[in-house]
Amino acid sequence: MSAEPGTVRPGGRTARVRAAVLRAAGDVLAEQGFDRLDLADVARRAEVGKTTVYRRWGSVTGLVADLLADMAEQSSPREETGSVLGDLRANASLVQRTLADPRQGALFRAVIAAAACDERTAGALRRFYEVRVAEWAPCVEQGVARGELPAGTDARAVVRAVSAPLYYGLLTSGSVPDAAAAERAARAAHAAAAAGVFVTE
């Protein structure tokens, strides 16, 4: 079975083309939203041929899927501070800074809005978060091994619990989360994990 257009990294001589197209797509999403994303406009902004964009990504949703895959690959690696709480604080701080960034925050809001009504975009967004949660889950697993958290703690659930209130606050209030919100989110997730809330075994 062939891969869905836009979900596989184009190879060969065109790495620069991919980077330019994804950058242009991100700019349009951040500036105008998903419903204004147009492959011909992206090609113009990236200064590449329309045929190239249509051939490689095939559709707007294919382009967004590749953009999210690239964002997951380029996201900052996890920080390991030596304690679960320190690691969760680092994770919360990264999420907060991303959502507070004028371009990245607007881009995520546009993609989340699109995912609510487009299943392919929703699937691409889920894959993005699967990658990011998997990147940070070892911090929790190491905390379990050190005895900071109870055995059987669901590491991925703890990581999701850190970022969930930050996204929820952004989407329901329109307010960008600040550093204090990130600190509360990390402490709340850590307290719940330490109390055994996320034990599944």
Automatic annotation (TrEMBL):
InterPro entries: Homeodomain-like_sf (IPR009057), HTH-type_TetR-like_transc_reg (IPR050109), HTH_TetR (IPR001647), Tet_transcr_reg_TetR-rel_C_sf (IPR036271), TetR_C (IPR011075). Gene3D superfamilies: Homeodomain-like, Tetracycline Repressor, domain 2. GO terms for molecular function: DNA-binding transcription factor activity; transcription cis-regulatory region binding. This is TetR family transcriptional regulator. Residues 38-57 bind DNA. Residues 15-75 form the HTH tetR-type domain. The lineage of its organism: Bacteria, Bacillati, Actinomycetota, Actinomycetes, Kitasatosporales. Pfam families: TetR_C_11, TetR_N. It comes from Streptomyces glaucescens. It comes from the Bacteria. Keywords: DNA-binding, Transcription, Transcription regulation.
